[in-house]
Amino acid sequence: MSENQTPEFEQTGERVAQAYRDIQAPLDAKEQRSFEPKEEDPKKSHAMQAGARPYPAPPFPEQHQAKPGEEYKLDPAPMYDAPFYKGSGKLEHKVALITGADSGIGRAVAVLFAREGADVAIGYLSEDTDAQETKEAVEREGRRAILLPGDVADPAYAKAAVERTVAEFGRLDILVNNAAFQEHVLDFEDLTEEHFDRTLRTNLYGYFHMAKAAVKHLPNGGSIINTGSVTGLLGNKDLLDYSLTKGGIHAFTRSLATHLIEKGIRVNAVAPGPVWTPLNPADKLGPDVAEFGAKTPMKRAAQPEEIAPAYVFLASPQTASYITGEILPIIGGYNGG
Q: Does 134 have pLDDT greater than 60?
């Protein structure tokens, strides 16, 4: 166990991870029967490439993971280190606490925050191997990092994570609410109350608990960034509960932003479309994962390093001092017609 971990919350985190798997297993079994071989479309157009380096596009290898999902098992590995991104001190001497920072968007945000000068507290559920890699990535940028395993749905964890961050680093300037639970259903009647409750507790209660614990420590000029989703803007027929929570996060962002103006704390949200992270192979089964992101106008999913700069932009007082209550979609384009 790392000296930076919070052992009193590790057992809770693993219990919740098992609860995630218990919800996932029967839905996986039912869906597996629905797959039939698909013929490759010869007219399929190429994915759009407009970044600093090429990014992978479907088809991906078929793969599936038990929840909560682990980045080190993904093929191909998500691209998070943004080698062409040059830091310029936008977050110099600041401290950030990021939930769901072990992998995916959270890891990429942690790396760029560190590159811009911030120390980072890494909140996560139970994925120790991934979290350790994020910690080492932050340290390679010359900044400090601590590990905070536990369940954001637990208000005691939220309070302890914030207080540990302040105790270790002396302050807290930025909270990124990013942890999420997602599990799709093909039939509405398969959405159990337990499943629905778990989604709301992680995605809504978790954001609420973390924000409430952080606000008393955030200074004038502090920032809260919530991870929303395109599903909260457009809906998703198979992610009824998840879409509900993401729409709620968008509304919470706008409301909390207005509430905290007098304290000088800005609150914004990023609403990504499909991003290649463990969240998705731990939701979809292999055949769907293979085509993940193919239906976007760009014909591919984003890589985490393509999303993370938006968090830097919204966190920094140098770039977003007059921006609060905004929802920034990053979804790979809109379908016309």
A: yes
Q: What is the mean pLDDT of the segment spanning 107-124?
A: 98
Q: What is the fold, at CATH topology level, of the domain defined by 69-330?
A: Rossmann fold (3.40.50)
| Residue tagged active-site, from 55, 124, 242, 311 | 242
Q: Which amino acid is at 227?
A: T
Query: Would you state the structure tokens that stand for residue 203, as one six-digit string?
Result: 């995605």
Q: Which residues contact 187 (CB under 8 A, 6 or more apart)?
A: none
Buried b (16+ CB within 10 A) or exposed e, 82-98: beebebeebbeebbbbb
Contacts of 72 (CB under 8 A, 6+ apart): 129, 130, 133
Please check whether residue 202 is in contact with residue 241, taking contact to mean a CB–CB distance below 8 angstroms: no
**200-226 confidence digits (pLDDT tens):** 999 999 999 999 999 999 999 999 999
For the segment 225-248, what is each residue's pLDDT rounded down to a tens digit?
999 999 999 999 999 999 999 999
Contact 129, 72 (CB under 8 A): yes
**55 an active-site residue?**
no
Put simply, whether the predicted model's pTM sits higher than 0.90 gets the answer no
Task: Compute the mean pLDDT over every residue in the chain, rounded to the nearest whole number.
Answer: 92
Q: Tell me how far apart the alpha carbons of residues 95 and 113 are, in angstroms, rounded to a whole number.
A: 9
pLDDT single digits (tens) 74-88:
889 999 999 999 999
Look at phi and psi of residue 255 and say left if phi exceeds 0, alpha if psi is from -120 to 50, else beta: alpha
Tokens of 148: 């905070």
pLDDT at 42: 46
CA within 13 Å, CB half, 243 = 13
Sign of CA dihedral 280, 284, 286, 290: negative
Instruction: Tell me if 281 sits within 8 A of 64, measured CB to CB.
Output: yes
**Residue type at 336?**
G
Check: CB of residue 10 under 8 Å from CB of residue 150.
yes
3-state helix, strand, coil in the chain (%, to 5): 40, 10, 50
